[in-house]
Amino acid sequence: MTKPLRLLLYYADTGGGHRATAQALAEGLKHRYGNAVDPILFDGLRKYAPYPVSHLDDMYPWMSGMSKTWGRGWTQLNDPRVAMRFMKLWWPYVRTAAMRMAKEPCDAIINVQPLYTFPVLWAMERTGIRKPFVTMVSDLIVVHALWCDPTTDRFLVPTEVSRQHALDNRIPEEKIQVVGLPIRLTFMLPPQPKAIARRQLGLDDKFTILLMGGGQGLGRVYETAEAIGRSGLNVQLIVVAGRNKKLKEQLDATHWPITLKAYGFIQEIPTLMDAADVLITKAGPTTICEAFTRSLPIILSGYIPSQENENADYVIDQQAGILAEEPELIVATVREWLHNPDRLAQLSRNSGQLARPRAAIDAAEAAYEVATSRPIVYRAPQGEPLLARLDRFLGT
Fold it and tell me: Most CB atoms closer than 10 Å: which of 89, 128, 164, 344?
């Protein structure tokens, strides 16, 4: 019996839906290739990285909440030369961890976290064990320079806009492939009729708003729910608090003047979206792409500076939704859409046209192709150190 292809999917819970993308891609691989593959999610930060890098997932909500500082640092690093210098400074600190990651037994690596890209590729160069390496960008639009080591074997991106960003950050054109953003395969199924989904959730068959704050329940979720609750609108509300236990407790403890169903971190998002007429969410990439498969008009309640603002621009430019960061403005938007069903229907159609429900399978096929063929390695004169090669490639 042929041994299954062991594929390590590098992720970390540092925002951007890295875990969600890795899980969806693993699901796509198993669906497409069955027992021929063994996809394994691998959190390299937690397993090998030195402290405090090993706990970036704990610090991420606090770090990303520092809007000006986070956005400024993210923007300054988003240049191939600056990113290279930054990673060179970090290399002595993370070298041991990267070497251990590079030696993990596997047939290929699929990377969905930008902090791993340069260190793991450099570590493979030093160990002499060059495994096929696929980069799967888990941001919808932005392709930060930290993703962009040109020696990767394949560079998978969600959209044509992100493809252009990859080119701007010096990824060779022949390595880039647009596959969509991997989301769970349940989103490939056609949506249920809204009345049926609402009945399953114990809701009335009336205009329904789904309010989310990403997996961490970030943003002014409670304030927005409160504004909708006292608005006088004839609506019902579904609120997903994610992993934010304090928010869930606050929602449960409040007496609401409208029907409100509150959930913590759950997997039944397709049913919630099937039941909804409108989605209110921060501009997280996974939630946006899931909403497209349900043709949901989107009210974007905010975004992480620099990292997610282009997601918001994309939704707005494609006329699939709007940005409304204040709870009162969100209520005004819902009121306007309720009074203008033609406008709401057009937003719904525009959203549905952006859907790529097969993205996990398309990404799986691209990754499998690389894993089972000769890697496309950037070559330089024999004996030239990798960092020198990259310096020359980038013109630094």
Answer: 344
